[in-house]
């Protein structure tokens, strides 16, 4: 085992043109790891705190870096992450910032993998990890907080569940994205792209469902395997004063549950994320009871990758799936704990990017390491394809990752 020799932090650009934190971890034996924090726009109320990157870096340099350098063994991820937590001293990383914490945590894991001469997924998953690969959920049409004047529902996600390989699945999602553009063009609907590279046309959700349904079935016929689709409703962003606000109408909680349940059946949806507000465990439980036998009801803002919030959900049978975003909780160890608790209780973990991203590929490795059934990381755009192409390389077992 080798100790951390130095931790270097800097501001770099993310995909929205904002600053974010990048960390380099060097070990005493010459190992090296680099990672960067992503950043959300439709952030959950209960997420760990992202500080201004300059402040996060200054605070981590003062409080965390001196405790890590020369003291902590890089392969001992729990110790790295416990040290980050105790250096921070708060429950939610409000002192050093979850952005500094997650960048250092992921960079340390990469440095440990480098020392071992193993790919990151192998280091994180161990020698006896399974050999399944995640189905990529590809964002095709979207709006909400990710694009102005577009759909109310935040994400319409292609899900190539029948793809024989990750590579086929990744190409299928890109084809659905292209086909959706063709259909919008035929309908004379102009469209630019939102934060995650999805089309962000000024259409209502009903029309987006029509476009998705057609695009998915055309590409499924072309590719010769089953492609379905799903949603991230981002319900907390629609919820205000006890009602869900869509473009031209509002829905009460009961109406929202009925609406989503009907959509699951009408479009055979394979996945529905955050169908309700982030405080509505009861609503999640009711919807899961109604349709959880035929689709995933996933908590993102509801659970925020947090074992305590997930435990509450498990007790109440709220949802049957959890979105895993390491920066929502601040360290890889915490993300692993959430995945483990989920799997033990029959909840499917879905590893996810953020709307603000970098070229960092850690989540592709995390998904493979933990045998996650799904990964949500866009369908086009350099910061998204960085992860998707890394999945293809991992699947092909290439020698240098
Ligand atoms: C990826 C998402 O968006 P953001 O990063 O803006 O929270 C999401 O809500 O699942
Ligand atoms: Mg979400």
UniProtKB/TrEMBL annotation:
Keywords from the UniProt entry: Cytoplasm, Glycolysis, Lyase, Magnesium, Metal-binding, Secreted
Superkingdom assignment: Archaea
Domain Enolase N-terminal stretches: 4-124
Tagged with keyword Cytoplasm: yes
Major location category of this protein: cytoplasm
Binding, Mg(2+): 232, 273, 300
Positions of the Enolase C-terminal TIM barrel domain: 130-401
Pathway where this protein functions: Carbohydrate degradation; glycolysis; pyruvate from D-glyceraldehyde 3-phosphate: step 4/5
Catalytic reaction annotation: (2R)-2-phosphoglycerate = phosphoenolpyruvate + H2O
Free-text cofactor note: Mg(2+) is required for catalysis and for stabilizing the dimer. Binds a second Mg(2+) ion via substrate during catalysis.
Cofactor: Mg(2+)
Signal peptide interval: none
Binding residues annotated for substrate, in chain numbering: 146, 155, 273, 300, 352-355, 376
InterPro entries, sorted: Enolase (IPR000941), Enolase-like_C_sf (IPR036849), Enolase-like_N (IPR029017), Enolase_C (IPR020810), Enolase_CS (IPR020809), Enolase_N (IPR020811)
Residue ranges crossing the lipid bilayer per the database entry: none
Active site: 196 (proton donor), 325 (proton acceptor)
Protein name (database record): Enolase
